[in-house]
Structure formats: structure tokens, C-alpha cells
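Progress against Task 2.4 (sequence-to-structure conversion) is shown through the following example record, which the project officer requested during the mid-term review.
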Amino acid sequence: MRDTRESRLLLVLLIAVAFALITVDIRGGEDSPVDGARQGAATVFGPIENGVSAAVDPVGNAVSAIRDSGDRHDRLAALQTENAALKARLGSDDRNASRLKQLNKMIKVAGEGQYGIKGAEVIAIGAAQGFSWTITIDVGANDGIQRDMTVLNGDGLVGRVTTVGPNTATVLLANDPDFTVGTRMEATDELGFASGQGDRPLRVELLNGKADVKKGDRLVTFGSQADKPFVPGVPVGVVSRVDPSGGDLTRTLYVTPYVSFTKLDIVGVVVEAPKKDPRDTVLPAKPKPTPTPTVTVTVTPSANAPVDGEIQQ
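C-alpha cells generated for the chain above:
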């Protein structure tokens, strides 16, 4: 429609009529004269409105479902995150409990031997330093660590410090083929030298070829001059095999070390040696032998047994 004077006049007239009808409808209330027209319009346009509503509602429902699905996804993701955090915390708690156990055990060993130790954590293994059996610990010169210091844990001798950096140090493990430590047998005081053999038991050469040694005997470190590289009394291991004595000047033993070199985590560097040799006090208590049960059989004579002096037919 063109914007003419007549069209503008018609628009104004329609607006005036609309306002007049609204006023009459409001003032008429329930008896409004336009109520019949309204009902007629509802009759005509109602089915159309319902059809449009039926067509639109599934779309609205789908949108609501997608929105709710997003909320459910967010809740599920939050629960999954919380569950992962809980598992991580539980795992961390288990690890912390294990570390606390290791630390307490090491402190007990240090107390019994009167060793002044600096606690450390293993942060690397020997792959970065060649084919030697070595570990890297997270303490170094800034922590008072020096070369040729004894390293132990709650089980016994771990090794000795070979290289020191400002904040880290390298430890040569006792099972390395280049590792040698002086040993002393428990009780008998027989001296020898233990050498590493990788994942096999330590090889010990006793200075006394006629020494009386048997399986199950235990060894500790003999110690070094000025307590470097080894302090005395650190548990080394248990004799697992003894070579027959052939009249040689030395006698060969094979010793299972107390320390598991593939499970190292918390260790201690001995920064202060004991004032006196702790001898065998650091060794763990010997396991008590399990008593062998004895069975006593009592024979009860039966009623038909022959009386002394009689012959049973």
C-alpha cells in the first residue's frame, strides 16, 4: 500500500476503532458485546493454533532435552573428575603411608647405630649414567653431602656417594660389580670383602679360609678409616651359600643383601659417623624358630586282647 493521505487516514481510523472496542470490552466485563466475536475467532483460529503448537512443542521439548542433557553431562563430568581426584588422593595416601613406614624404619636404624643421617628421595636410576647400578638422590653439596659417604635405608647398606652436585648426588649401589665393602661376620668377627654381582647375591671373600660359616649367618660393614666411604655396623645381608673349603687362603660366601635395590625410594646419607662401633646392634632381631609339633600315640588294649601268659587261637 502506498503512503498516501487516504492510507494514513484509514490507519488512524482503524486505530481509533480498535481503542473503542477495547474500551467497550473492558467496561462490559462478562457481558461484553464483543464476547461473541471473541468466541467465534477462537472457534476459527483455535485448531490452527493447536496445530502450530503441536508442531512447535516437539522442537521446544527437544531443545529442553538437549539443555537437560548438557546439564546431566556436566554433572557426570564433575562426578568423574571428583572420582579421579579421590582415586588420586587414595593412591597418594597409600604411597605416603609406604614412605612414612620407610622413613620410620630408617630413623630406627639410624638411632640404633647412632648415625647422623640426611634423608633423601631417589629421583633417578642409573640408566642416565651408563650401565652401572646407580641412583640419583635429591640432596647435594648444598645439603652437606660429600663424596664417599655411606648411604643406607631401613633395611641396611644401599651404597656410597660417588658424585656430588649442588642439589643432587649419585650413589653407587652395593650390588654394582665395581662396588666393594669390608664386612664382619656377626658374633665370630671374621673379616672379609663383599663385591656386587648385579642381580645375583653378593660375593664375599673371607680372609680366614678355615672360618666356620654356615647358611643363615649375617654380616655388617666393618668400617673404613675416618669412616669414609663406610661407617661400621650397617647390616649387609645373610649368607645363602658357602663354597666348600679347599684349603685356600680365603673362603667364598654368597650373601643375599638385606636391601632390595629395585625398590629404593627413601634413603639416608650418613653425614655424621657414630662415636663408637655399634657392632651387631643394628641387625634385625633373629626370627624365632617355629616349634615342631610332636604327636604322641597311646594304644588302648581291646577287650579281646590275650591276657599275659595266654595264647590266642
